[in-house]
Write a structure and sequence with these properties.
This is Myeloid differentiation primary response protein MyD88. The chain has about 200 residues and is an alpha+beta fold. The protein is built from six helices and five strands; from the N terminus they run ααααααβββββ. About 15% of the residues are buried.
Length: about 200
């Protein structure tokens, strides 16, 4: 029998049915604390997930605070199903663990299977030939040095690659940035840099 490492499976792998079952167990408020001081409902879960009191109050405004807490927690880095199981154990919610053990296993297996499929279908990062691009040369004159440099830009099927480029001078870096003409009127912080030629 295969042993699953729940600590290696991210919490985002929890499927909707598992989250809904967690909601059924944790949404009803329980005023009696577990022996280690954690509430036995969504508030105990939020405490262990390091949500602040004000955040918990905001979660309580929704129909299901448990779902909101889990949704907010699963997008954080280093959250795993194993960590969720540990939190439920800390709350003394062995009833949840017993009822959802199979769901946790199914979610983890499904996630691992999807990851393996994606990895087997991924193309290599580097291929010997690139057939969807063509190379275009731009001559850029650097006024302060009087030297012409050539930069090869890779253009694809995007139509704006053919638009007229203008050179914006940034003297503090001694660099020229090519941007589309339509973006010149934007503030400098919003200008999209297509490529940079640096001279020293």
């Amino acid at each position: 029998m295969e042993v699953l490492d729940f600590n290696a499976v991210p919490a985002k792998a929890l499927r909707c049915s598992t989250r809904l079952k967690l909601r059924e167990f944790l949404d009803p408020r329980q005023e009696i604390l577990f022996k280690n001081g954690f509430a036995r409902d969504y508030r105990g879960l939020a405490d262990q997930m390091d949500f602040q009191y004000n955040e918990v109050r905001i979660f309580e405004r929704y129909d299901s605070p448990t779902l909101k807490i889990i949704d907010a927690w699963t997008v954080l880095p280093h959250t795993t199903i194993g960590l969720l199981i540990q939190y439920l154990e800390n709350m003394g919610r062995h009833d949840i663990l017993q009822d959802l053990q199979l769901k946790f296993e199914l979610d983890a297996k499904s996630y691992i299977q999807r990851r393996l499929q994606v990895q087997s279908q991924e193309s290599p990062l580097q291929v010997d030939e690139i057939s969807s691009c063509r190379s275009v040369s731009f001559d850029v004159r650097l006024e302060d040095s009087g030297i012409f440099t050539t930069e090869d830009a890779c253009t694809g099927e995007i139509s704006y690659d053919c638009e007229r480029l203008e050179i914006v001078n940034r003297k503090q870096w001694r660099a020229r940035n090519a941007v589309r003409e339509s973006e010149i009127s934007l503030p400098v912080s919003l200008v999209v840099i297509l490529h940079t030629v640096t001279a020293f």
